[in-house]
Write a structure and sequence with these properties.
Elements: H1 2-6, H2 8-15, H3 27-30, H4 33-60, H5 65-94, H6 102-131, H7 133-149
Helix pairs in contact: 4-5, 5-6, 6-7
Length: 152
Amino acid sequence: MELFLFKHQEYERLYNCTNLVIDSIPIENRRLTIEALINLILGIIYFLLYLPCLYSIWKQHWKNDCYTILLYIGIVDLVALLIIGFLHPILALQGAVFCSYPTLIFFAGTLANFVWVAESSANLHKIRDIKGQQGFNLMETIINKMILSRKI
């Protein structure tokens, strides 16, 4: 995202599509019709199942901290479903690749990554709430291992 926003020339150099011909692979080979339809149908089902659950949490339990975290996780899940359950199948039905819609696909990928991080951090918070100090120690250990594995 930093390259796209602040060093756009470098982004264009690294992610340009000038030497690529999208149609070098026939559209029939790029379309994933069956997978896209399955993904779209499941996305619709999951989305419709999420709505009454989130409404129930919001209407009846929103003052409870644990349910507030669950509501947040549910909203984040809905955002993820918009990407992986609707946008991805539509692009797959079109046979789109990165060079077809570079900005859209870049931002969708960035948003998907953000949603994953937001969901993971909320789940770590939920562990801490459920397990108390023991959960906090577990969360601290996990974060330390993640930091050490990045070799910062």
